[in-house]
Amino acid sequence: MRLTAATRLAGVVGHPIRHSLSPVLHNAWLEAAGLDGAYVAFNVAPERFSALIEGFRGGSLAGLNVTLPFKTDALAAADQVSPRARAAGAANVLVFGEDGTVRADNTDGEGLLYAFARQAPGFRPGSGPLVLYGAGGAARGAAAAFLEAGCPEVRILNRTRARAEAVAQALGGRVKALDLDDAALALDGAAALINASSAGLGPDAPPPPDLSGAPAGAVAMDMTYKPLRTPFLEAAAARGLATVDGLDMLIGQARPAFEAFFGCPPPAEPDVRGIVLRILGEAT
Ligand code: NDP
Questions:
Q1: What is the pLDDT of residue 284?
Q2: Which residue owns the Cα nearest ligand 1 atom 31?
Q3: Using one digit for the tens of pLDDT, what is the confidence trace for 251-262?
Q4: Ligand 1: residues within 6 Å at CB?
Q5: N or C terminus: which one in the chain shows less Cβ crowding within 10 Å?
Q6: What would the pLDDT profile of 66-98 be if each residue is shown by its tens digit?
Q7: Closest C-alpha to ligand 1, atom 4
Q8: Whose CA is closest to 174, among 223, 121, 128?
């Protein structure tokens, strides 16, 4: 990669950030497109986040992806907020205008639908209720994206029920908070099941939810992509459901961000999924 005085710079900010795969994706696309650009990672302490954003006002940086724990702070820091970022209650993209303004967007929902389109091509979000496990920022973004795409009902099951109720309150009447142990009610007629919990996979992690009552035609998706085949997806596959992994969501949310930062869509080649799978040690 050749950097010049005209190099267009973008990045990702989080805390911690060393695990981020965003630099791999964006730099692979930049190199393939032959663009004079670079994408780097910023690890910033929570109390320094606002100062970092203020420092980039004016366009010294084209834009930032934003990851944990700053997605709600990013929304608050922006001068302009897209409707989908407003609906998600969080921003994963900030674009710095030359006039000093900061625009916030949320491409996670677009990434989610991209993953379904890639791995479950016949699936239609409007075909039935969505069951969501988790009620954090990613779950709220998923609910908003599915509602926007015509989903008739979203049922949220979360460890902390009050948080699920808050999401239902924010997104309106088609979203319902249910008890975690109300699996039969939650799964009745469901078209899609999405695991948006960050519970992890360690010895203390809860077991995957009971999916035995899921309709045979439902599609199950897990936002986690380390590992690619999570216990949730294994449980869904054991039930005979079609599955969608979280890696295409990561790629799908990065694609519109790349276009916002560098002014053109990412090139079709290289196969960034293959590159990331090799990094994760999951290549077949
Ligand atoms: P948040 O921290 O906002 O929410 C975490 C959610 O997980 C909450 O609902 C929380 O429940 C639940 N949870 C955490 N630990 C446990 C536990 N031990 N038992 C039960 N529930 C638990 O995170 P996000 O919403 O931002 O992200 C959720 C997941 O989605 C993360 O793993 C993230 O990496 C992934 N993600 C993947 C993306 C992709 O591109 N593939 C994009 C965005 C996110 P409670 O409310 O009770 O605390």
A1: 58
A2: 198
A3: 999 999 999 999
A4: 68, 108, 111, 134-139, 158-160, 163, 196-199, 206, 223-225, 246, 249-250, 253
A5: C
A6: 999 999 999 999 999 999 999 999 999 999 999
A7: 136
A8: 128
